[in-house]
Structure formats: C-alpha cells, structure tokens
Design goal:
141 residues; 2 helices
Length: 141
Amino acid sequence: MRALIISVFLILPLISFSQRQLYGSWQGKMSTPSGNYVFNLDLRPSPDGTSSIRGTAIHNRNGEKQVIDLEGIIYGDQSIYLSDVADPLKKLSRGDTFSRLQFTYSYQSGELVLSGHWQEYQDMSHYRRGRLVLFRKSTKA
C-alpha cells in the first residue's frame, strides 16, 4: 500500500507537467478526402482551473477561413476531447455546422505531438472528417 501511495505522488507531477506543455500554439496538417489543409490550434487552460481546456482552431479550407472556439477536457490517458463552445442543436437549426476534435498527445523523436481526428457535423448523423497531426508552433521573438 505504501509503495502505491509513493508511486502516485511521483506520477502526479509528470501528468501536470505534460498538461502544461499542451498550452500554446500548434500547427500541422489536416488530411481530408477532399484535400490537405494547414490547421492551427491555440490551447489554453480553462479560467476555472479545472481539467478543462479552451482552444481556438483556425484553418483555411477551399479559400474559406474558419475560426472555431472550442472547449474540452484533458484526460489522464493522454487524450484531449474538444468541441464547439456553441450549442450544437442551435447551430444546426441555423444551418451552421459544429466541430469536434479528439487528440492523443505523445512524444515522437523527443518532440510533443498532437495526433487525432476532426469531425464537422452538418446534422446529427452526417459529418465530414479529417486526420490531424500537429506540432508545437515555434514563436518568433
């Protein structure tokens, strides 16, 4: 029992360290059946200080720039789930779409990578999808 408690206390700082590394700007490629697009994602902690996460996704698809405000949760299994801040049913009733993103984060060649999927729902049963691979966007000072 004592070893279990010690192990938990040793692992907790590593989990929070990984979560802090997620915050910031990410950029990569979204691959869809209709083409490949540059995809940008900015992640920040939720203001309430919970395991919630906020984000803004920006991508330019077919000459149309889309900005999506997102909120979601970071799970202990190194996954992140994000969805539109707006109510999906209200967006669909106006003829708009809503998006959901799922990621896992892991290290590849010593670099933290977000790898996952994007879905844009046109109604509750039909959606377009894409594959995302995002890397930390370097800042220029």
